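Exercise: predict the fold of this chain.
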Amino acid sequence: MPADFVICTRAVDGKSFKAEPGKTQFLKVPDGLQPNPKQALKPDAWVRELHRQAVWGTDSRTGAQRGDILVFIHGYNNGQDIVMQRLRRLKQDLTGVGFKGSVVAFDWPSENMTLNYVEDRHDAKTTALQLVKDGIKLLAEKQTPDCCVNVHLLGHSTGAYLIREAFDDADDTELKNAAWMVSQLVLIGGDISSSSLSSGNATSESLYRHCTRLTNYSNRNDSVLKLSNVKRLGMASRVGRVGLPADHPDKAVDVNCTEYFASLNSEASIKNADQSEAIGSFDHSWHIGNRVFARDLFETLRGDLDRTAIPTRELTGDGTLKLVRLPGQ
């Protein structure tokens, strides 16, 4: 397998990384190994190698090279071993359904401790701007007239919070007027309040301003996001559990996974067919390692089909979308 690309914002402790904020390093991690500071490349060299891997063809309209980069932002309570396991599983899932671009991990200083939610959320806020300044903006600046590589984001759990804060911070700093955009912004198990994604909400204005489309996958069976979860301190209903608010902007779309997950979780035949791996709490982390989600995510990133025409979705009577298995699967 090709090497793994990682944007790491963990501090260095001797010859390894620790779960505290540090300067951004750009790693090229050999297949099967764990990240370490010796794998760091200079930003320009790292981007050049990443772009070579991300390019998959040419744009029929312009003749320019085309490619895709998906940046995966993990959640809280994730040590580097789990981050790399999820990154590699996600790469394998997407490659299996036809994705030809690159997948990158944005590795922020999350601790692998069950009760570290509050500190992890603080560290996510601390390192949020680095996602835009040292990640998205760097990738955008390296675009050339003869090579266009779309940048997409996938935020899991607290990763959704980091993305929201990163976009907001960027618009409050010297990056406010910089030309940077992401194509598809995708949230799974999103640990931010549903109401914060309402149209006109100041918290998410920057989020919507800097993306082409936001897709949220929700699951009412997600026990990690329930209001009574002691680690979450009883915060407002989360978008990864209850879905987007009714007054969300048109560029946002919610894919309700509740019914599909219920069958996946209760029927062994479906789980055996659809789920190749589960990393972490199943109801909160089933997406990575699931073939149905991988297919839906691939179509979302590709962007060729209307949101309602993706084969792994069904339009319900009230006009909302739900995730479904493909016919005959």
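Check your answer against the key: The longest strand covers residues 16-29.
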